[in-house]
Amino acid sequence: MSKKGGQPSIVLIFSLAATMIGATIISLPWVISQSGLILGPVLVILTGFLSIYTGRLILKNSKGYHDFGQKCRDTLGAWSQYLAQGISVLVLLSAQISLHIFLSQNLHSLVNAFIAFTKHDSPTWWTTKISALIILAVEFPLVLIPDLTVILKISSFGIIAVLAVCVIVVFKGVTPPGGITMKDITYASPNFPVSLGVLSVSFFIHNILPSMFYDARSPKKNTLNMTLGFLLDMLLYLAVGITGYLGYHHFKDPATGQIKTVPDNILLCFASTDIWAFVARICLTLQMIVTWPVMFSQTRTSFFEGFFPRSALECGKGCTRPSRSKGFRGTRSEKRPLLDRNDGEETFSGHGDETKEEFKDKPLELNFWIHILPSSIVFMSIPTMFALFYPSVGNILRFAGSFCGFIYIFLLPNLVEIVVRIQAHRAGYVQLEVSPDASINRDMNSLTGSKPKAAGCRVAFVVFRSSVLILYGLSVFVMQFIFKAK
Questions:
Q1: Structural domain tally of the chain?
Q2: Could you tell me the pTM of the whole model?
Q3: 3-class SS of residue 333
Q4: Where are the residues of the annotated region Disordered (predicted)?
């Protein structure tokens, strides 16, 4: 059944693809180099389809929710909601760290290019550390802006800049200096776990899937639209990663003249005065400058909404959004979904849509001096410290991505799936014992997924499958400490 005024499928597909893809696209050639020309694309496809599967679990089990963390709370307990909220903050923070490093490197190269165009030499004091401090000075006032309407409109065109960078990288990859050579190509590397860590964050969008598809015009197509969005990004990752690695698996560093392997920022392979690289850096710099305030606002909101009581945040005039009182959030026993006979859908008892709609529509209002300014200083200091003293994007992304991916892509969705399936299985047998009515039996069969005699085997298989995926996600995170990036 379609909703009037909801988001059409084409908008959802491209919104998903545009939100998921970002500055990490320029690290994909490095990802392929860590695993090999054949094994690398296989891992991209594997991680993509595993992310699609767990994304489908989130959409299926989050019907009626704007936030998967709320579903986790109602199914697993309050600890899971805090964990989900913390991971959302951590993945956004790691993205800001990578943005700061990329911006510093791009600004350094762009200034070098302008100086070279004037036939002068760059001063010795002009380093990436200076450019990192300049980025801080530019971005800090932007993250303090309370109304991001204008920036949001500008950032909506950011996908054009990212696509332009992808086209330039692919073009440069297939036309490198001296042509493509297959010498010293690695086809499969035992260092492949490093790639899995970065790929986990490259496909990470699971924390906003319920809110993104909540107002879909055709809810029945949500799974299909989500899958198409993931596949679109998967194709871009493969194109950029393979061509970038083929063209620059070994390249002559334009700054030092030494032969090096592909870095975690493919743009560093190109000379500052290279016109196409110059255009790519400008496009990516502008896109990241307007993306950062939006991402920062999401980080701040997620932090305060997830870890502080609403009553503690309501200060000053205009803070009219209702608190997360017991009547709305409820406890695990109060807000647990009740299974009814409405085609296997979940309904809720004692919580009207009116309260949830009121909570959703009124934005969080924070006091500037108490909340916005102090949090901005703290959250801006962290990326700046990394950009100054540890500008290794690849290592940052692989550790943060593997941990966040383990929790939000593998652990929580599969735990919720296990609990929901077991609850449905038990509810089915209880209902069958209470009433022998044939229509009720059919309804409960649809919930358990099969006839009662076979339902137990099906639930056992779900538990086994989910456990394997959880162990896989955990192993990816653990292996980051065993293997070192080349």
A1: 1
A2: 0.83
A3: coil
A4: 324-356
